[in-house]
Structures are given as C-alpha cells and as structure tokens.
Automatic annotation (TrEMBL):
Signal peptide, first to last residue: none
Cell compartment(s), UniProt: Cell membrane; Membrane
Gene: Ano9
Protein name in UniProt: Anoctamin
Keyword Lipid biosynthesis recorded: no
Residue ranges of every copy of the Anoctamin dimerisation domain listed in the record: 81-143
Taxon lineage: Eukaryota, Metazoa, Chordata, Craniata, Vertebrata
InterPro entries for the chain: Anoct_dimer, Anoctamin, Anoctamin_TM
Keywords: Cell membrane, Glycoprotein, Membrane, Transmembrane, Transmembrane helix
TM annotation in the entry: 154-183, 234-252, 299-321, 341-360, 391-414, 524-550, 571-598, 682-703
Anoctamin transmembrane domain mapped to chain residues: 146-714
Record GO cellular component, one term: plasma membrane
Organism: Stercorarius parasiticus
C-alpha cells in the first residue's frame, strides 16, 4: 500500500484532552476525503493518503498554459515528490474546531512526528547503490534521479555543490602552486636571512613582568614561515581568487538556467503554486496580503545589532585570552613554552575559537523555535520562501560573525592598536595588547585559519556523520518491533505489511523544514573561508576541495540512510544564497585587499625597495634590494623610558631595545617613513579593489547568465505555440 504521510502519536488515556484533539484533527482530514489507517505498537501510527481529486485540482490549476487547448481532460500521474509536497501543505494548514494546526498540536505533544516515507522504489535503490556510497566519491552525481526522489530544491543543492567542488579544483591547484613556490624561497629570502643573522639585535620584552629581553635571531624559523606565505605570489593569487569567485557564480547561473529549463521550471511562479494549494485546501481562503512595518523593521535591526555586539564581545574574550596566555607562557618554567609563547598563544587561541564556533552553532541549532524563529516572524513574511530568506540572512550574519570576528581582529587590528614601549594600550589597565612579530602578522592569520579549517573539516564532519549513525543504530537496537495487534476500523490482523516500514522510517533521525538550510550554511561559510582571507592561507581552496569530495557523499548517505525523507520542495534556483555568495565575492575583494595592504609586509617592503634600499641610494648592482629592510623597520626605545611598574630588567646592551614600528628615537612620534608607507597602503588598497571589481564586472559581462540555447529554446516554443493557435 502507498501512503503519503505517517503521523505518530503517544498512546493517550481514553477521554484525555490530547486524545480529543487528535481525534478532531483526524476527523478534519477525513472530511477532506483522506484515507486514514491506524497501527498500534509502542506508539500510535496513522498513515494518511490524499484522494485523487486533490491532485487533479492541482494539475488543472497549474497546467502548462501553452497546452490548455490541446488536451484539457488529460491527467497524468502526479510525481511522488509533488504528492508529498501537496499533502504536507494540507496537513500543515488543516485547522481543527479549536483553531489549532498540526504545528500547534505537535507543540502540545498531541502528535510526536509527521513524515513522508522512504519507499522501496527503483529510484531509491539506484540512489542508495550508485550515489550514497563512499566508493562513488569521484563519480558524477545523478541529479535527475535526486530530483525525482527528493525534489528540485535538494537536487539544486547537490548540483550547486558539485559545480562548486568542480571549479574549486582549479583554485586548489593554483593555491598549491603558490604555496609550493613559497616553500622554494623558504631559505632564500633576504629578510629571513637578516632576522636569522641578527644575533646582536635586542628586542623589547613581550610582557611587563618577568619577560626578558630577547634576540631577534631567536625567531628565525618563524620569520622563514612568514616569508614563505608573504610574497609576491600571494598578491597574484588574491587577484586570481577574486576573478575565480565571479567566474564561478556566473558559470553557476548558466548551469542552473540549463538544468531548470530541462525541468521546465525556468519561469515557474512560486506564488501561483502556493495560492493554488491554499485554494485546494480551502476554497474560501482569502490571500494573505503583503505587509511592511517600519517599526517592526527597526526592532529587528536593533535585535540583530545586539546579536552582533554579543559576538564581538566573545571575540574580545578571545583577544583577552591570547594576551593573558602570552604573558603566562612567557613566564613558564618549560623551555618550549617560554621560547614559543607567541606561537602557542596563537594556536591555543585558534582551538578556543573553534570550540566557540561549535558552542555557538549548537546554541543556534537548539533554539530554532526561539529568537531565531521570532525575528523573521516579526516581519510577517507572506510565503515560506520569504520566511526562509529572512531567516537565512539573519542566521548567516550570526554564523559569519561567530566564525570571522577573531580572524578580523588578527588580520586588521593585531599589532596596530597596541601602542609602543613606554605607552602600551592595556586591557583593564593591566594586560597589554599583543604585538606582531618583526616579520609581520600574516603567520598568525595563517595559523588561525589552518587550525579552524582543519578542525571543522575533520572533527565536525566526523561528528556530523557519527551522531546520526550511532543514533540510528541505538534506535534499531532499543525499538525492535514486538508483535502486537493491528487495528483498521474493527478488523484485526496478525501482522501488517506496513508496520515494519513505518517503524523503520520512524527510527531514522528527524528532519525539519530547515534541514537543507544547515547544509547550505555549512558550505557557504566554507566558501567564505576559501575566498575572504585566501591571501593569508593559499591552501584554503585545497582543503575545501578535499572536504567537499567527502561532503557530497556524507550528505547523500545522511539523506538516504540515516534521516527520514526530507519534504520535497519545488524551486528553480538556490534562493537568497546566490545573493549571499555575491556579497561574499565583494567581501573577498575587500578582505584580500586589506590583508595585502595592512596585514602583509608586501607594501612596506616595496616602499623600502624602491625608496630607501641600497639599490636606490647607492649604485649597487649585485646587492639584493631588500638588504637592510629589517633594521629599517625596527624603531629604537630607551630602557629608561619604560613605565615604572613594568620593571623589565636590564638589557644586555644596557641602554636600548628595538621594537616593530616606524617611530623617532627621541619623542617616539611617527617618522616620515610611516606616513610614506601609510599612503602607499591606502593607494594599493584603492587600486587593488578597483582593479579587482572592474575585472569582476568584465567577467560578469563576458559570461552571460543565461545560455543562448536556453533563450532560443523559449523563443522557438513561443513561436510554435503562436503558429498552432493561429
């Protein structure tokens, strides 16, 4: 027997309020012509099947207008995905005499679950054997079969993810080339050589108490790693990724247009479909009006700003941790911690940031019905898609700040707001802010991104698979079906063929209207990591590419084997996510421009090479133009000018120490070089962003959104229809 949906309820006491509410709801379905079958086990299971007339009305209302005069009485079978979607809409919008809907009854625990069934059909068996298996990791996805089983929205998600992964391969190859090229200059960089040979350059202490003066040559390896990342190739790669992000989206628009045209959904109207289903459910239904309120919009804006402020506060907590950790590690008796205090503070800070991301994501996912559902509801969206779009923007903003607030601090503020020796900026008047290494801050950003991406793509993905898998196995073990009576009206049978199927579906992990949203959100956050700070971490596209090969099969296995069947939804694009991806593309240009201009030492080094280096001041032909850069970028501080309470002790040289900045030795004001570099940074940022945005616009113009074949197909179809009518 084929059943469209199964409702699950606890066995309530006879005459109880919950039983009465359940009966009222089932009676309303019966009035609409639904067939209902009851099976009793440890729970009550109700199979519901809609009458044919509902689907005939749906077909008639939404038939292709071009074929209305050809065969108006022809009725083809409605696809299973459409049946489930229509029945789900009717179930969700059926109102009892107490003015309660299924959503309200589930809140009151009248019904525990409502889900469509995984049927033992040919398409499902094909997908289980040829798609939802790890061995098919390099195989092409059967998008048409996915559409037939899960609907257009899920099929478009996998089509987008496959296309993203395919084009990510090119970005991964380019990033790998840039990284390998950086390794080749690991030992040959002139700046690194100067740091490694600076055995007589005494640096100022890293903390106030018990921190000794230190030799610049002690950080030789750190300097080599920095210049492996921070080189001319990074600038070219950042520009390449800005172009790649645009080309990827433009090519996806073309791919999407081709796919939805094949499905005959290119000009599908969601609003018309929703109005049709509302009328099928209730002929007296009045259409919901569009609403807008400036007051509600202001309230939402204020709530979102409060949410962002909370996340920035958490980022401040991570900053405080790094400051305190650096001071504690520097004072440690362990030689390794003492010598690598800065690096250890960065690494442990990155792990703590990852833990924060996991916790905040869990808090968000556990409060679907709380503030996150309240914000879009305040706007009174008219359709499910409008509600989903509003929800997407707010949750993405939350996740974006959760993931990137600490990275933004490291990239653009670390070492730039900390003051200078004798006048440090302090947290709570006690702990002074961190400083950048003399070779730059870009390695800190590299370490932070590497740790977060590796942890997200290993631990998070393993947990994403193991939690539903273990839950599924435990359900099967604990809830083995016991033979009990089956009730259908007044008939009794020894065993019912539907029982095993309904129980096995019930034991799978629950899905909700936003299950696919979580998958999209995960991938879009990954896309942000891959593009926004890629100048500091060229391996990001490679890690994302490897992750996505597994992610496609992981999502397939979850949907086919570990979760209940997701409600199929009709769609002809990926919705608001396209605008989010375009916004990320613009942020990527701005972010990478800022990383090169501010975080990287690329600009100061170029200014030195072409203004202050031996190549410019002397007629030296055989000298590297970077010679003397480190000494030029370090300022001198007199030890006698330290704040009295810091007591750093005596310098081995007795009188002064060096620190990273461009300041005069007498009054510690900024030097001419500082303003020269500042102007050059600003000029580069403006040039880079304008050049990158121009290239993006040219690429968007060069690659049409809709292929000519699609336009021609519609034109020929219109022409033929007009000819037939004439």
């Amino acid at each position: 027997e084929k059943w469209d949906f199964v409702l699950v309820s606890d066995i309530h006491e006879v005459g109880s309020e919950k039983e009465a509410k359940r009966k009222k709801f089932l009676d309303e379905l019966s009035k609409k012509g639904f067939t209902i079958k009851k099976i009793e086990d440890k729970k009550l299971f109700y199979g519901v099947r809609a009458p044919k007339q509902i689907f005939q009305k749906y077909q008639w209302l939404l038939r292709n207008p071009d074929s209305r005069l050809q065969n108006p009485d022809a009725h083809r079978d409605v696809p299973v995905t459409a049946r489930i979607r229509i029945v789900n809409f009717i179930l969700q919008n059926t109102v009892t005499s107490d003015l309660e809907k299924l959503h309200d009854l589930r809140k009151k625990r009248v019904f525990e679950a409502a889900f469509p069934l995984h049927e033992k059909e040919e398409v499902r068996e094909f997908l289980k054997e040829r798609w939802a298996r790890w061995r098919d990791i390099f195989s092409q996805q059967p998008i048409e079969k996915i559409r037939c089983y899960f609907g257009e929205k899920v099929a478009l998600y996998f089509a987008w993810l496959g296309w993203y992964t395919y084009l990510l391969g090119f970005a991964a190859a380019a990033g790998l080339v840039v990284f390998v090229a950086g390794i080749t200059v690991f030992n040959s960089s002139q700046v690194s050589k100067e740091i490694c040979e600076a055995t007589d350059t005494i640096m100022c202490p890293l903390c106030d108490q018990k921190c000794p003066f230190w030799l610049l040559s002690d950080t030789c390896t750190y300097a080599k790693v920095t210049h492996m990342i921070d080189n001319e190739g990074t600038v070219l790669f950042a520009m390449f990724m800005a172009i790649w992000a645009t080309v990827f989206l433009e090519l996806w628009k073309r791919q999407r247009a081709t796919v939805v045209t094949d499905w005959d959904l290119y000009r599908w109207d969601e609003e018309e479909e929703e109005l049709a289903m509302e009328l099928i459910n209730n002929l007296q239904h009045e259409p919901q009006q569009y609403q807008h309120s400036y007051f509600r919009s202001t309230i939402i804006l204020l709530l979102v700003l409060v949410m962002i402020a909370v996340l920035i506060g958490i980022a401040h907590g991570l900053v405080i941790y790094r400051v305190v950790a650096t001071a504690l590690f520097t004072q440690s008796d362990l030689e390794f911690l003492h010598e690598q205090a800065n690096t250890m503070a960065v690494m442990t800070g990155a792990v703590l940031h990852y833990i924060t991301i996991v916790i905040m994501t869990k808090v968000r996912s556990e409060t679907w019905g709380g503030p996150w559902a309240l914000l879009p509801s305040l706007e009174k969206p008219r359709t499910f898609s409008q509600h989903e779009n509003s929800f997407t923007i707010k949750i993405f903003t939350f996740q974006f700040f959760t993931n990137f607030s600490s990275l933004i601090y490291i990239a653009f503020f670390l070492g730039r707001i900390n003051g200078h020796p004798g006048n440090y900026v302090r947290i709570a008047g006690k702990w002074r802010l961190e400083e950048c290494h003399p070779s730059g801050c870009i390695t800190d950003l590299f370490i932070q991104m590497a740790i977060i991406m590796l942890l997200k793509q290993t631990i998070s993905n393993v947990m994403e698979y193991l939690v539903p898998w273990i839950s599924h196995k435990l359900h099967k073990k604990w809830q083995r079906p016991k033979k009990r009576r089956v009730m259908l009206g007044e008939e009794e049978e020894a065993e019912d063929p539907c029982k095993r199927q309904w129980l096995s579906n019930y034991q799978l992990s629950e899905v909700n209207a936003f299950s696919l949203f979580d998958e999209f959100l995960e991938m879009v956050i990954q896309y942000s990591f891959t593009t926004i700070f890629v100048a500091a971490f060229p391996l990001a596209p490679l890690l994302a590419f490897c992750n996505n090969l597994f992610e496609i099969r992981l999502d397939a296995i979850k949907m086919m084997r570990l979760r209940r069947r997701i409600i199929p939804r009709k769609a002809n694009d990926i919705g608001i996510w396209l605008q989010v991806l375009e916004a990320i593309g613009i942020l990527a240009v701005i972010g990478n421009g800022l990383v090169i201009a501010i975080t990287s030492d690329f600009i100061p080094m170029q200014v030195y090479k072409y203004t202050y280096s031996p190549c410019m001041t002397e007629n030296s032909t055989g000298v590297d133009c970077s010679t003397g850069y480190i000494n030029h970028s370090l300022s001198v501080f007199r030890i006698q000018d330290f704040e009295p309470h810091t007591k750093p002790g005596l310098s081995p040289t007795g009188l002064c120490c060096r620190y990273r900045d461009y300041r005069n030795a007498d009054d510690y004001s900024y030097t001419v070089q500082f303003w020269h570099i500042f102007a050059s940074r600003l000029a580069f940022l403006i040039l880079f962003e304008h050049a990158a945005l121009c290239v993006k616009l040219i690429a968007a113009w060069y690659v049409p959104d809709v292929p000519k074949s699609v336009k021609n197909k519609f034109r020929i179809r219109k022409h033929n229809n007009l000819r037939k009518e004439l």
